[in-house]
């Protein structure tokens, strides 16, 4: 197995990880934290994918994709916090005024889980943010201890995986997802 993580640039590869099976379906497309909530509610069906395609064309940082033997198998969303709803989120605090990047979604295709791809995606997202001049990367993973997490709700990642990647606990949050508290983890890149 050869895994390569690189910045998302090809729409069809992003669609393979984030798009719906049915073009009319209203799936997230990893937009819910990226765009204002009003726009997020207004974009329906194919308009969601079209918005992602436009973001890709604009050169906005979206995230990274993991490729296994040339096929897209994993996704991690990473962008400047100022460009996300985390900039205004009342449940996830700001530690300081540093212009951090946020890493908020990790997705691995079924059939490829348990191969360490989430670790490769975290590392790839950090390297991408570093290359773009990010002074630090924050994540808001679930602090689930040893409790099982529903895979559909594990998208923010798990605290232990971020600790393994060198992130440190920076703050508690009041955000809870699928019954698990979320914590603010940070990796300083300076």
UniProtKB/TrEMBL annotation:
Q: Which PROSITE patterns match?
A: GNAT
Domain of life according to the entry: Bacteria
| Domain N-acetyltransferase residue range list | 1-190
Q: Where are the transmembrane segments?
A: none
Spell out the Pfam families in the cross-references: Acetyltransf_1 (PF00583)
This protein is called GNAT family N-acetyltransferase
Species of origin reads: Streptomyces tunisiensis
């Amino acid at each position: 197995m050869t895994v390569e993580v690189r910045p998302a640039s090809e729409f069809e590869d992003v669609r393979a990880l984030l798009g719906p099976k049915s073009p009319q379906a209203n799936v997230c497309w990893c937009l819910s934290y990226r765009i204002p909530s009003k726009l997020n509610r207004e974009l329906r069906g194919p308009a969601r994918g079209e918005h992602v395609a436009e973001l890709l064309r604009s050169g906005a940082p979206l995230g990274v994709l993991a490729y296994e033997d040339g096929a897209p198998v994993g996704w991690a969303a990473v962008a400047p916090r100022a460009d996300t709803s985390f900039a205004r989120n009342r449940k996830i605090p700001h530690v300081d005024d540093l212009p951090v990047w946020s890493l908020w979604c990790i997705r691995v295709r079924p059939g490829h889980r348990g191969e360490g791809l989430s670790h490769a995606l975290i590392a790839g997202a950090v390297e991408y943010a570093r290359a773009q001049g990010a002074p630090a990367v924050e994540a808001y993973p679930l602090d689930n201890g040893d409790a099982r997490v529903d895979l559909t709700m594990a998208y923010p990642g798990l605290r232990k995986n971020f600790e393994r990647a060198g992130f440190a606990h920076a703050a508690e949050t009041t955000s809870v997802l699928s019954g698990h508290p979320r914590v603010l983890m940070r990796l300083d890149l300076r």
